[in-house]
Amino acid sequence: MVSAVFNHFPQLTTHQKEQFEALLPLYAHWNSQINVISRTDMEHFYTRHVLHSLGIAKVLPFLPESKVLDVGTGGGFPGIPLAILFPDVQFTLVDSIGKKIKVVKAVADALALENVLAFHQRAESANGTFDFVVSRAVTQMDRFVPWVKNKISSNQRHTLKNGILYLKGGDLSAELSPFPQAQQYELSAFFSEDFFLTKKVVHLPL
């Protein structure tokens, strides 16, 4: 239910609420043509996709004029929900699968999200530097870091150092052992829904 988003983010404007409400019918429409979300997950769309994406915002609210790169965005997660929440932040969404980027562009256009750019490309090909790279369980951290380590801006403005904010689940001790500077934030500290019991945001400064 979209009300879960509203409850966890009471500062939303009327326009932002309308954009979040529009997400489900938009994705239902596109999912019937291009499968970007599993059928069973569509029943839990606002919890498993929208609220999960917004978990990053609970760990770090992005400052205006920040630049964020979403790698392996799929159908637009976490980038699209974050772009609604932070209209003054520039989001670049990339994915190596062209039909998924087609969906991202269509959703961004329908919502008039002027702060979203979407490209059919690999992370290594993304132009420019960014305050943060966000992603949702695309691959193991040791594979992910080389893709993006040259994409991080040296201009520090946030309370957390520039780097990666990665949505992950389960026991990450083995995966993160090569990265002692990585910090894990439990999403169950912010969201009461059972889905979040094992979900985390990993911050890795680069």
Detailed description of the structure:
The chain is of the alpha/beta class and 206 residues long. The chain has a single domain (2-205), classed as Rossmann fold. It is built from eight helices and seven strands, in the order H-H-H-H-E-H-E-H-E-E-H-E-H-E-E. Strands 3-2-1-4-5-7-6 form a seven-stranded mixed beta sheet, covered by helices on one side. Helix 4 crosses helix 5.
In short:
This protein has 206 residues and is α/β, with parallel strands linked by helices. It has helices spanning 2-8, 14-31, 39-42, 45-59, 79-85, 98-110, 141-148, 173-176; strands at 67-71, 90-95, 116-120, 132-136, 163-169, 183-186, 199-205. It has a single domain, classed as Rossmann fold, CATH 3.40.50.150.
Strand content: 15-25%
Biggest beta sheet summary: 7 strands, mixed
Distance between the termini: 36 Å
Spatial strand arrangement across the major sheet: 3-2-1-4-5-7-6
Unreliable stretches (pLDDT < 50, length at least 5) are: none
Number of strands: 7
Q: Over all CA atoms, what is the radius of gyration?
A: 16 Å
Helix share of residues?
Answer: 25-40%
CATH class placement: Alpha Beta
| Secondary structure category | alpha/beta
What's the arrangement of secondary structure elements?
Elements: H1 2-8, H2 14-31, H3 39-42, H4 45-59, E1 67-71, H5 79-85, E2 90-95, H6 98-110, E3 116-120, E4 132-136, H7 141-148, E5 163-169, H8 173-176, E6 183-186, E7 199-205
Helix pairs in contact: 4-5
